[in-house]
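Pasting as-is:
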Amino acid sequence: MACPEITVPQVDKVLHDKLLLDAEAAVSKFEGTLVTLEGITLDWNYDAEAQVLHITATAKPFYIGCGQIQSKIQELITKAREGNL
């Protein structure tokens, strides 16, 4: 079951690149706009012109809630903005 979309505004290219590097370091698998990590599939859609990142968990294990996924994504974005990735 898909989770609600997470919309992250003010994502410039530098921040987007940091987030991609972090995802790749976590052994994520990218196929176009789909990212797979630990049984979770995310639709990762970046609008560079508007500087907005849209992330939707389209598949996840039953034991992981949408709130957990959203919290983790927000945590990673906060760390990336603070330069702690």
